[in-house]
Design goal:
The protein is an alpha/beta fold. It is 29% helix and 25% strand. The longest helix is centred in the C-terminal third of the chain and has 14 residues. It starts with a strand and ends with a strand. The structure holds zinc ion (ZN) (2 copies).
Length: 264
């Protein structure tokens, strides 16, 4: 069984990730236009019509923008927690609502989905009920956590057990401090329900991960307060200090990543 992972977009302009086998293809988040999802999948040799479900991390628009269209026009089931569905239902900026495709996933209750078992778990962010996802296949685990202010115990457990990890490195602390964002926004980003800095992610990973983790993709980089080279360097240096050998990548904000083949 071959498993492919592609980031179609990652950051505050929109998030969408693809993970799939020949039988089972899913999207995590749908924060970019459907035509862009379609085109980027097509360019990778994949067909949106073969995608069988969408999983949503939280109700911020950069994660949900197209979820309604995928549900109602393309008839894809959209899985997320009941609270996030309610928040999407009542959001005035989320125009196309989800009706027929509404599916509830309970946190910490893995659901079997063809070749995958998918588990949602709670994380700390200012979405109404933010989750990360662990996708189990064979004896391997792929964990995706974007948008979080700090790493709570549950998130920690998922990260340290992952073989493949997508994790946020949102901002460089100095760039945010000296940047032009208003103080209230800086405080929101730095808070426990905001975003992870490069340093926080670097420190957590270098202190906690073990040899079963083979790939790390840094995601949701800020356009204003980060640079891909800086995120990479901050995390890479910390990992190297501890002698940790892992494949480290930075996901592009507005372009698709390479296609990664995951071993199971
Ligand atoms: Zn976001
Ligand atoms: Zn968010």
């Amino acid at each position: 069984m071959q498993i492919n992972f592609i980031s179609l977009a990652s950051g505050s302009s929109g998030n969408c990730f693809y993970i799939g086998t020949d039988n089972c293809r899913i999207l995590i988040d749908a924060g970019i236009a459907v035509r862009t999802i379609k085109k980027r999948l097509h360019n990778a040799g994949l067909d949106l019509s073969k995608v069988c479900a969408v999983f949503i991390t939280h109700d911020h628009i950069d994660h949900i923008k197209s979820a309604g269209v995928l549900s109602e026009k393309l008839f894809l089931p959209v899985f997320t927690t009941a609270k996030t569905h309610n928040a999407m239902d009542s959001s005035y900026i989320f125009k196309q609502k989800i009706y027929s495709g509404k599916r509830i996933i309970e946190k910490n209750l893995p659901v079997a989905f063809d070749d995958f078992t998918i588990e949602a778990f709670g994380i700390s962010h200012d979405g109404c009920d933010s989750v990360g996802y662990t996708v189990h296949f064979g004896d391997k685990r792929f964990t995706l956590i974007t948008d979080l202010g700090y790493i709570c115990e549950t998130a920690k457990e998922h990260i340290i057990n992952a073989n493949y990890l997508v994790i946020e490195a949102n901002y460089d602390e100095q760039m945010l401090d000296s940047g032009k964002y208003p103080l209230s926004l800086k405080q929101r980003i730095q808070s426990d329900t905001g975003h992870l800095s490069n340093r926080q992610t670097a420190k957590f990973l270098s202190d906690n991960i073990n040899e079963k983790l083979s790939h790390i993709w840094l995601c949701h980089l800020s356009r204003e307060n980060n640079l891909p080279q800086l995120a990479y360097k901050t995390v890479n240096e910390k990992l190297k200090e501890k002698g940790i050998n892992v494949n480290l990548y930075v996901l592009p904000r507005t372009a698709p990543s390479d296609v990664f083949v995951l071993e199971n």
